[in-house]
Amino acid sequence: MKQTITQLIIFLFCFAIFLSKPLYSQFRFSQITVQGNSNTDVETIKSISGLKRNISLSASDLNSALKNLYSSNLFETVQVIPKGQTIIIKVKENKRIRRLVFEGNKKIEEKELLPLIKSKERQAFSRAQVVKDSRIISDFYRFKSRYSARVEPKIIERDNGFVDLVFEIDEGSILQISQIDFVGNKSFSDRQLRDVIKSKRAGVFSSFFTSDNYSEDSQEADKYLLKKFYNDQGFPDAKVIASLGGLKDGGDSAFLTYSIYEGPYFDFGEVSIRSMVKGISPSIYEKSVVASKGDKFNSSQIKETLDNIKTVSVSNGFPFLIGKVDQVRDFKKREIGLVFKVIEGPKLFVEQIEISGNTHTRDNVIRREFKVEEGDAFDPSMLKRSEEKLQSLGYFESVKVNVRQGSSPQNAIVDIDVKEAPTGSLSLGLGYSTDTDVSAQFSFSESNFRGAGQGIRFSVSGSKDSSSVGLGFKERGFLGRDVLLSMDIDYTNSKPRTTGYTANLLALKPSVGFNISSNTRVNLSYKFENIDVTAVGSSEVLKQDIGQSTRSLIDFSLRHDKRDSIIKPTKGYIINFGSEIAGLGGDDQFLKSKASGKIYQGVFDNSIIFSTELEGGILSMGKGYSKVVDRFLLGGRSFRGFKYNGIGPRELNNGSYTIPLGGEKYAIARLAASFPLGLPRELGLYGSLFAEAGTLWDLKTDPNISGLSDKVALTDRNIRTSIGFAMNWETPIGPLQFNWSRPQKYLEADDLEYFSLNLATRF
Q: For the chain, what is the domain count?
């Protein structure tokens, strides 16, 4: 017995030693051979396998090679066999797709379907993938509301290991909604709720709309819209507890039913705002609150108030301060009191900015124009404006800004991915407008010279009214800062049809521009001008301008931009002010100032954009009298409904109003509502309704010329008005604008214009 136990112990010890050794060993193979391939190159197979000669390989390495070869989808079967000093890779290749065709797809083009599937011509054929692709195509048709669509793959065997793959498609018909019902709605009728949701019942004009097509995605949108509607109408607990969609009439149409729990109705009770942050007064946030006691409960007003608190915090230099709201319910009074609190939110900083995609443009140029730096507080609105700023430079086809977490939850990494566009151009441009008739332009320019954000230009342009030659240079990063330095030299010959004068202007203009805040930019310029008026036609008044003069001017301009987008604004405002001071040498002394302000507000999810604009200017003479080249002109694109230079002071000859002279003061107000025209967005077509009111007045003549002032008429503030419709179209050859105008209030001497057209293109 003792001997048996001893033998057992010795056996277990030896077995343990055996188990402690590796189950496989490392081997070296001097050769790798491939068998069974006909279409795939030997070296390609070896590369895919990951195996290499004369290195130590284990069983695990051989297993990895097997997985690599299978995952390539090139082979139906794979064997990796070690034999002596040789590894044999035996493969049976998948067939390849010679030709891929869609049949029966009349409503959806091949170019829409092909990117959806993974099966491609000249690539490996996989029956499993074909099944998946068929399902993907079917799902896409369902997305297009064609629920009866059928997709059948047809595989045609060809020689040399190839197949033809045909997706036979029966598109079926669009499934439209014939009935929409609601259950549980006591406070609002079915008709009211149908106006709220996205889905619509099919009607006479069904072929023109997609909202009456059955869609599962639309159901989810409907549930959200219904809940939001109730929450904004005094029902904070309302929810859509169920939705049902199904087929009726033998599968030819669909019905929708929404089950609603309304809950109790509430008004707003007491509404207050408090600051929970030491040193921050709640008074700066008082105008942020849009909810009022006694109003019906409205969740959108609560959200708007919280958004306003964030906006005010950022604009006052407190990017980490946010708002939260406490709701206090009084079931007896059916009131919900609101206490908005200003608190510290999570502090997030920009840890790193990474730039990719730029091969020509230098990193420092992108960083200079991007108004966010490492170490800054994370501000989504500033990121958006910075992205738009880069896009507006014209250096890039696309700019994408993405944010990801950095080394900690409090740090963010900002990725800027750009796709560069050609920035140099040698072009011939043609244009037409009712202001200038046909115009032509030749130009050479480079807006990103040497990739340093520098700009150079040479241009020649001409029309019936004027011709010009210009040279210019811009340095966007002067002294390594966000300072724009420019130098321009321009020569212009003007001969407006409406006035009959001819003037030659030579101007030298160095300027510098810089930001004084994140939203405010200043530009300072010096201009030296030489003006030579050589003819004035038959005008007695304009004869006083004949001759040559020089002037030295300081030009100051300021722009304050608080729009949510500099490209397509939907809310916010922009203010512009500019002033020219002449008299620092030269022959003329005057102060010429202009100011404008424009407000934007989008409604109905920004599908309609309202804008209100005020603009005005004044020309004050230090000595002498104003010249026609300096006066304001109004009409054409600046005041629709009236021709270019079609209103304002005119020369009076023999009791008739003749030549327009321009004015020293003007004011105009514009109202507009822009909206899509219901066509695909990619067409770039939208319309607007507008109303404009304004006037141009005041003109002083040389008092030393007897009787000259008697020849100037219509210098009073006679208000003109017009209304109309505009259509803007981003055509393939350039922007096109039509204006149909109807003057409402005008003078007999005014030149009216009921239709105007502006078109520009380059080639």
A: 6
